[in-house]
From TrEMBL:
TM region positions: none
InterPro entries referenced in this protein's UniProt entry, alphabetically: ADH_Fe/GldA, ADH_Fe_C, BDH-like
Protein's UniProt keywords contain Oxidoreductase: yes
Keywords: Oxidoreductase
Occurrences of domain Alcohol dehydrogenase iron-type/glycerol dehydrogenase GldA (ranges): 9-180
Keyword Oxidoreductase: yes
Protein name listed in UniProt: Iron-containing alcohol dehydrogenase
Residues making up the signal peptide according to the UniProt record: none
Residue span(s) of domain Fe-containing alcohol dehydrogenase-like C-terminal: 195-391
Length: 396
């Protein structure tokens, strides 16, 4: 086990009507004015925004609003929010929605305490490293990214067609108000692409170059078993509140760092997928990972086939055959079968990519991630090209 430092300062308010407690919490903290950030209309139509604003109003917390955050959030919306937050003198950021909205809120919270352009945090090479942010009270509505308690922010720049991130405990939300009822109206695509995303967050920690971390392994494998079980319940009954609640909490634990304690992390697959959604912002992150992660797994499996076999035994109940590589491949097949059973895509072709796009993807990922990235196995531009090409449907 590696030496480690780990902080998880987020308070969780979980359960029915949790969103109605935002105002009292802010008042208790001595905060005065919030910027409420949301997406493209669902929070208005559902009445959620009204409930949150009413909670703030009743508690005497002034507010301004910023709507229109899109999936794969873009830097221009961050800039707009920073300008508004500075002009209004807000001291609290309240993002309401999925990971895109929460990441936008995090970037605004950090950028509001910075004199330069917020893209400085994300530019490559030579990013500026922020060190502080306004307090954040997140109201997640989509279990997927785990951004409600993570230390990471991912933002896209359409002008340069790049997608990048920064990290720091200072952008972990102070509190997350989590009501599983808010997820009951989610379309199946969003529900299950979110489940794919949370599995990927666990895989990025489980497939590590660090050896012998049985406690963290046990947490990761238990979460994956629970996610698989609860996902199958939602396939049968999308209105199952308890399954929704379990998935919502699993999403948080998948990305708050607890699965990584005592070991290094990989993140090569996320780096490869980010180039897909940077090139085509309509690509849902979890759906892109459903294609990229199994392709990465097959490419790197010989680095440690026993690791994949362990996943197969503990999560999918596969019996060992005595052939390490065959056991690894069988486990990877089960991962991909699980993703496709949720309605996720199998090939890059399904997003409209062609093999002619691969050189551009490789050039971009080398610029963003460097010419050697990952931990389980270092990925070079040549490796990235091979992984991308293997993710297309076989040619006749």
């Amino acid at each position: 086990m590696n030496d480690f430092e780990w902080t998880s300062p987020t308070q969780f308010v979980f359960g029915h009507s949790a969103e109605e407690k935002v105002g009292p919490w802010a008042s208790k903290q001595g905060l005065r004015k919030a910027i409420v950030i949301y997406g493209q209309g669902h929070v208005i139509r559902s009445g959620l925004l009204e409930r949150i604003c009413s909670s703030l109003d009743t508690a005497g917390i002034a507010r301004v609003e910023l709507g229109g955050v899109r999936p794969n959030p873009e830097i221009e919306k961050v800039r707009e929010g920073i300008e508004l937050a500075k002009a209004e003198g807000v001291d609290l950021v309240v993002p309401v929605g999925g990971g895109s909205t929460i990441d936008t809120g995090k970037a605004i919270a950090a950028g509001s305490l910075y004199d330069g352009d917020a893209w400085d945090f994300f530019r490559r090479p030579d990013p500026v490293t922020p060190t502080a942010a306004l307090p954040i009270a997140a109201v997640p509505t989509l279990p997927a990214a785990g951004s409600e308690s993570s230390d990471s922010v991912v933002i896209q720049n359409d002008q340069t067609r790049t997608k990048s991130s920064f990290h720091g405990d200072f952008v972990r939300p102070r509190v997350a108000f989590m009501n599983p009822e808010l997820t009951l109206s989610l379309p199946a695509w969003q529900t299950f692409s979110g489940i794919t995303d949370m599995c990927a967050h666990i895989f990025e920690r489980f497939f590590s170059a660090t050896k012998d971390v049985p406690v963290s392994d046990g947490i990761a494998l238990s979460l994956l078993r629970s996610i698989r079980s609860e996902a199958n319940k939602l396939l049968a009954n999308p209105a199952d509140y308890d399954a929704r609640a379990s998935i919502m909490w699993a999403s948080t634990l998948a990305h708050n760092g607890i699965c990584a304690i005592g070991r290094s992390e990989d993140w090569a697959s996320h780096g490869l997928e980010h180039e897909l959604s940077a090139a085509k912002p309509t690509v849902t992150h979890g759906a892109g990972l459903a294609v990229i992660f199994p392709a990465w797994m097959r490419y790197v499996r010989k680095q440690n086939p026993a690791r994949f076999a362990l996943l197969g035994r503990e999560v999918f109940g596969l019996a060992p055959t005595g052939d390490a590589d065959a056991d690894a491949l069988a486990a990877i097949d089960q991962v991909q079968l699980f993703f496709t059973s949720l309605g996720m895509p199998r090939y890059l072709d399904e997003f409209g990519f062609t093999r002619e796009d691969v050189d551009g993807l490789v050039e971009s990922v080398a610029k963003t991630k460097g010419r050697r990235f990952g931990d389980f196995q270092k990925i070079t531009p040549e490796d990235a090209r091979a992984i991308y090409l293997s993710a297309f449907a076989p040619q006749d």
